[in-house]
Amino acid sequence: MRCLSHLGGVAVLLLIGTPSAYSQQVATQPEKSLRQLFLEAEQLSKDPDKQEQAARMYQEVIRRHSYNESVVSDSLKELAKYYEDSDQLEKGIRFFALGRVRASTRSQEKVFKDIMEAYYLKHPKLVLKFSRELNQASRTSLHNFPASNELAKSILQRKDKTLREKSLKQLRGLFAPGSDDATKRAGLMTLQQVLTAKFDHKSFGPLVVPLLDSEDELLRAMALSCLPKVSGNIDDLPKIVVMTEDESKRVRQKVGSALIYIAKGKDAEVVIPALMKLMQDEEHDVIRSTIRSMWGQYTSPEFDEFLVGLSNETKYHHIVIYHCLSTISKKSPVVCQRLVEELSDPDWNNSGRAAWGLTYGVTEEAKPLVEAGLLKAIPEETNSYTRKQEFRALQQVATEKSRDYLQSVVDSDLETDQFKQLAAGVLSQLDQE
User: In whole angstroms, what is the distance from residue 12 CA to residue 10 CA?
Assistant: First the structure.
């Protein structure tokens, strides 16, 4: 892509054209690998006089690659039929299961996935049998196996309640004490798919909670993902807090969300320290996942200061503003000051979100600084969405200090009707107080 952008419009024009004379010429030459063609084109592209020739070579690379992808996909499908028709199913399942893990492109991965799902629908016992073997060789292997789509469909369908209950019983059976890790993973993957259906979710709690202690990291992570929907028991909090120190990054990424959805704004003395620990993790993925799981349920002086500091780090700036500070239900002066500062961000994804956050939850002691900040920001704001949110925020905190500016908006020949109406609405509210 770097070289194509270097060539600019010439390359784009050539790539969307019909097969060129150059392509035909290449076809008559001794076969070259795609890598050889690419390297030759890269060298040619450095010479301004040979850029058109380079673009044609890039076109040939892309043409051959697309053709090869199609041939590979067709060959895989034919191979799948061969294994089934020749009674070599186990060999086929092993080949395609391992192939899906090792697929080099998304299109190849999709073909492997589709074939494995077809195998599973027809021969679920064989697929699970191999999954157990593969699980012994790789702790992460079954994560790449398809969940029971047929079982999930039976639970999600709405017409036959008897079929749903029968399928739910079958699903519970996958968590039986004698089931191996591979079978339990298949159960959790299926459970994740059907949690939108109407059935007694809590009945799965006693089956899922014990998996938090599993030696298998995928089982622990998947159990955490399901836990809020199947348990919601506040007594599970201590078990989840301990998992902030889990050796697996994959598991720690799920802890914050489980804590927040189960505690539901309560037990702050337990939840806040755990969240702060996760947001100081050595792995950026854990920090980001934890930030994204927060929606304003928790606040404390120390926690607010911590989040404000995190919002000033470039790599976490946007998601802390979006998921944390703007959503806090009771915004302290420290939080409000940071959101007011954010109103000057030229990126409306940040300034607009900050303005939206100031439309509610501003505490009494923070209202004066928010009003002053809005009166400074609104006249300079050029983004319509952000400015609308700023007027809405001003309506929550306006005092007589806002009257002169609001009246100037109403009287202005340069303001649109939308903003005149917003300003008039705030003035009307002031008149009634």
Answer: 6
State pTM to two decimals: 0.65
Each residue's pLDDT tens digit, 227-267: 999 987 888 899 999 999 999 999 999 999 999 999 988 99
Tell me how crowded residue 315 is: count the other CB atoms within 10 A of its CB: 10
Contacts of 65 (CB under 8 A, 6+ apart): 34
Give yes or no for a contact between 90 and 126, defined as CB atoms under 8 angstroms apart. Answer: yes
Q: What region does 264 belong to: left with phi over 0, alpha with psi -120 to 50, or beta?
A: left
| Tens-place pLDDT, residues 13-55 | 333 333 444 444 444 444 567 677 778 877 777 777 777 887 7
Sort 363 into a burial class: Cβ within 10 Å, 0-12 / 13-18 / 19+: middle
Cβ(325)–Cβ(357) below 8 Å: yes
Candidates 361, 349, 350; CA nearest to 392 is 361
Single-letter amino acid, residue 407: Q
CA gap 60, 136 in Å, rounded:
44
Alpha-carbon Rg for the chain, nearest whole angstrom, is 29
Q: Are 327 and 296 in contact (CB under 8 A)?
A: yes
Instruction: List for the chain the helix, strand, coil content (%; round to 5).
Output: 75, 0, 25
Taken as a whole, the chain contains a residue count of: 433
Using DSSP, state whether 362 is helix, strand or coil.
strand
What would the two tokens of residue 22 be? 């150059």
For each of the domains in the chain, give its residue range(s) and CATH number, in order of start: 1-83 (no CATH), 299-398 (1.25.10)
User: Which contacts of 237-243 are long-range, i.e. CB under 8 A and separated by 24 or more positions?
Assistant: 237/262, 237/263, 237/267, 237/270, 237/271, 238/270, 239/209, 239/212, 239/213, 240/212, 240/274, 241/270, 241/274, 243/212
Please choose, from the candidates 387, 372, 374, 378, the residue with its C-alpha nearest in 3D space to the C-alpha of residue 418.
387
